[in-house]
Write a structure and sequence with these properties.
Helix content: 25-40%
Radius of gyration: 23 Å
Family: Belongs to the bacterial solute-binding protein 5 family.
InterPro entries: Peptide/Ni-bd, SBP_5, SBP_5_dom
Strand order of the largest sheet: 8-9-10-1-11-16-12-15-13-14
Number of strands: 18
GO cellular component, one term: outer membrane-bounded periplasmic space
Largest sheet: 10 strands, mixed
Number of helices: 20
Pfam families: SBP_bac_5
Shape: globular
Distance between the termini: 52 Å
Strand content: 15-25%
Structural class: alpha+beta
GO molecular function, one term: peptide transmembrane transporter activity
Length: 520
């Protein structure tokens, strides 16, 4: 019962929605989206968060795009071929492509986009160099003709085509003429929209410059960190779509007569990471979590199903790993909530309670307002851990300005709350967060060779059946020696005005190209 009271108290922290700002209903050529977190860059290479990437996708094209069903479809490129050994992909671009400043977009620009992101002098830490390139072992890109660009990999990877499709393409001459600081604030578009203005902490305004793509002339992304304020703005019809609807406000939206909530089971993996880097090893809590038995004990300390039902308003089965259902290892069973087992394992690991009841003290860092009801979820996790003697100090940070840089530099911790985007089209896509020890998305610095050495077996597998055996063995290693305190796959609640027709995706990609006014 004590655990339930912790959750109820955390949930009680949600405030009633304030009165909406007196704004006009958007004109017919404009769509307004309320998001919870600001962007921190418009340079395509260092972008690392989903909100940032969602806006950037309207500004920058990619060679191909992955649909919600996992199909790969053309974008700037019209076709591609893979070498016989699977270590190079050659894309043929569409003719007549340009960037917004009139510069022709050719294979040279596509190659430059890849090579620029990998250039060590730029020291980028975003999704492209930190996740995509480490996963495919990017070797380099070369224009082999005006319209053909070849991407060379270090080893074959069955999901390379999907990873390459995440790299934003931009024009070489434009970006060579800018400093990195200038590129962060002044994007030159290759996609259908261009940046009009960015007021940090307030809004991003885009306008369409390619007339044959997108149904709205203008897109306004309003940064509204408070969930209650986003709800009020939606009901007042000042915004058309909001993300991260708070579970306690679903009924208010559905009963408003002006909007509805569109729920979807998302693919984002929510977890608490254990940062095992040397930076934290000399701290009390950082040293404790180096011990695999301590990490395993803490799995039993958190009541994940109760967090889901009481704070997120949905029934969940706890995750057994980093792979979205139904692609996980079917033989693994979710860790149960068993605080007595947690206490026993902590005792056995050499961390008994002291006279004051504390085993060790540790900091749990989190960004504020990025994930569904995240502040209350993090506070509940901190209380669960404190209840088994691990005194947990929850440190809530601004998402865009403070937390994202810490995450990107792999310096959050010793424990940190995070959600990593995933997919259902391949287990390997989810697993490539940990493709190599030094991957930018290995925020925990986990280095278990029983996981990392198996990627060569994945590459060598000749059939899906052989590959699946290796995948299951790797997922068992992750479960037993997990660098994550395993939580849940986040549900997503979108608020959608009756003014527009918008279909949310499971992967949190808020793409507005097909969105239109209702009835059109």
């Amino acid at each position: 019962m004590a655990m339930k009271r912790h959750l109820l108290l955390a949930g009680a922290a949600v405030l009633l929605a304030p009165m909406a700002t007196a704004l006009a209903v958007p004109p017919e050529d404009t769509i307004v989206v309320g998001i919870s977190a600001d962007v921190n860059t418009f340079d395509p290479a260092p972008i690392s968060s989903r909100d940032n990437s969602n806006i950037a996708k309207h500004i920058f094209g990619t060679l191909y795009e992955i649909t919600p069903d996992g199909d790969i479809v053309p974008d700037l490129a019209e076709s591609y071929v893979v070498s016989e050994d699977g270590t190079s992909y050659t894309y043929t671009l569409r003719e007549g492509l340009t960037c917004e400043d009139g510069e022709a977009l050719t294979a040279e620009d596509a190659a430059y986009s890849f090579n620029r992101a990998a250039d060590p002098d730029n020291a980028f830490t975003g999704n492209t160099p930190g996740f995509v390139f480490s996963s495919i072992q990017f070797q380099g890109a070369e224009a082999v003709s005006d319209l053909e660009v070849r991407i060379d990999l270090g080893r074959p990877n069955p999901v390379s085509f999907g990873l390459i499709a995440e790299v934003f393409i931009h024009c070489k001459d434009s970006y060579e003429a800018m400093t990195l600081d200038e590129a962060a604030r002044n994007p030159v578009a290759s996609g259908p929209y261009r940046l009009v203005s960015w007021e940090p902490g307030s809004q991003v305004v885009l306008e369409r410059w390619k007339e044959d793509e997108g149904n709205f002339q203008n897109i306004i992304w309003r940064v509204i960190p408070e969930a209650s304020t986003r709800t009020a703005e939606l009901i007042a019809q000042n915004v058309d779509i909001i993300t991260n609807v708070s579970p306690d406000q679903i009924d208010a939206i559905n009963n408003s007569g002006s909007a509805k909530v569109a729920p979807v089971q998302g693919t984002r993996r929510i977890y608490v990471g254990f940062n095992m880097s040397d930076d934290f090893a000399d701290t009390e809590g950082g040293a404790a979590i180096q011990n695999a038995e301590v990490r395993r004990a803490l799995q039993y300390a958190v009541d994940v199903p109760s967090i889901c039902t009481q704070l997120l308003n949905f029934e969940c089965e706890r995750a057994t790993g980093l792979v979205n259902p139904p692609n996980g290892n079917p033989n693994l069973v979710p860790y149960p909530y068993d605080p007595e087992m947690a206490e026993q394992l902590l005792d056995e690991a050499g961390f008994p309670r002291a006279d004051n009841g504390v085993r060790f003290e540790i900091t749990l860092q989190a960004g504020r307002g990025r994930y569904l009801n995240d502040v209350n979820v993090v506070q509940a996790i901190g209380q669960f851990l404190s209840d088994v003697g691990v005194q947990t100090n929850v440190e809530l940070l601004d998402w865009a300005s403070t937390y994202v840089p810490l995450i990107s530099q792999r310096k959050a911790g010793p424990m940190f709350f995070l959600g990593s985007g995933g997919g259902t089209w391949s287990p390997l896509y989810d697993m490539t967060d940990l493709s190599v020890v030094g991957a930018g998305t290995n925020y925990t610095h986990w280095d278990n060779p029983d996981w990392f050495d198996r990627w060569t077996d994945i590459a060598a597998a000749e059939t899906e059946e052989e590959r699946r055996v290796v995948i299951n063995e790797m997922l068992e290693v992750f479960y037993e020696d997990s660098p994550w305190l395993l939580l849940y796959f986040q549900p997503d609640f979108y608020g959608v005005s009756s003014r527009v027709a918008f279909e949310p995706r499971r992967d949190e990609k808020v793409y507005l190209f097909d969105t239109k006014l209702a009835g059109n």
